[in-house]
Write a structure and sequence with these properties.
The structure holds two protein chains of two kinds. By secondary structure, chain A is an alpha+beta fold. Chain A is built from three helices and ten strands. In chain A, strands 3, 4, 6, 8, 9 and 10 form a six-stranded antiparallel sheet that branches. In chain A, strand 8 and strand 9 form a beta hairpin. Chain A is elongated and about 50 Å long. The mean pLDDT of chain A is 96. By secondary structure, chain B is α+β, with helices and mostly antiparallel strands. A five-stranded mixed sheet of chain B has the order 2-1-5-3-4. In chain B, a hairpin with a 2-residue loop joins strand 3 and strand 4. Classes of the chains: A alpha+beta, B alpha+beta. Chains A and B meet through strand 4, helix 2, helix 3 and strand 8 of A and helix 1 of B.
Chain lengths: 146, 81
């Protein structure tokens, strides 16, 4: 399971890939930020195409573990999150730091482009928007036909 | 013609007002035909001309012939991570 309704636990993820022969553990934690495109963010909600997202996450982890001599742990939150909450965590453990850093970076970048997860942000002015990295403004207003 | 269910998510679900819709497609129809049928639904005109369609959990291009029984889903631009 890569998608989680409950807070992510980094120590547990680290423990899941650590071993006596892996002397390097690199981790990345994506955290809900308090601003986006000049607006104050109060919180957000992640939704996902669950079965495809689980399958894509498993494939990315498998690909990273094939490309580098690493073990990878990956977890992504779903549901409502507040500013400061951990949204995604990647941990890569290897014998040495090079592949650990490389695999960790590759996995988080791939999660952003491959895994069907969506983010609806809630702003201080009371409005909400769907985050769209491909849109010029970075977001689409909710409930709008444009 | 067969009736196929298409799963909708996030902004696209909001545009069409449902988490899934049913569309009629002909035998041998492609992803492009499916998108045309979706764009003809109420609210569907707001969909982009070439939205990402997943067939059995994999992205499919416009020329792909829709296989029988595979799960179909329309994916808005991804925003995870």
């Amino acid at each position: 399971m890569f998608l989680h309704q409950h807070p992510l636990d980094l120590p547990t993820l680290i423990a899941s890939v650590a071993s006596d022969d892996r002397g390097a553990i690199a981790s990345f934690v994506g955290v809900v930020r308090d601003h986006h495109a000049g607006r104050t963010v109060l919180g957000l909600e992640y939704s996902a195409y669950g079965p495809m997202a689980e399958q894509r996450c498993a494939a990315l982890v498998a690909q990273a573990e094939t490309t580098w001599p690493v073990r990878v742990a990956l977890a992504h939150r779903i549901g409502p999150l507040a500013v400061g909450d951990a949204a995604v965590a990647v941990v890569a453990a290897a014998a040495h730091r090079g592949p650990a850093f490389d695999a960790c970076r590759w996995v988080i970048e791939a999660v952003k482009t491959e895994v069907p997860i969506w983010k609806r942000e809630r702003y201080r002015d009371g409005s909400e928007a769907w985050v769209d990295p491909t849109a010029p403004a970075g977001v689409h207003p909710t409930g709008s036909a444009t | 013609m067969t009736t196929r269910t298409v799963l909708l998510f996030a902004r696209y679900a909001e545009l069409l007002g449902a988490a899934s819709v049913e569309v009629e497609i002909a035998a041998g129809a492609t992803i492009a035909d499916l998108v045309a049928a979706l764009r003809a639904l109420p609210g569907g005109a707001s969909l982009p001309a070439n939205p990402v369609v997943a067939v059995a959990h994999a992205k499919a291009d416009a020329a792909t012939v829709i296989p029988e029984h595979a799960e179909l889903a329309l994916l808005p631009p991804l925003a995870g991570g």
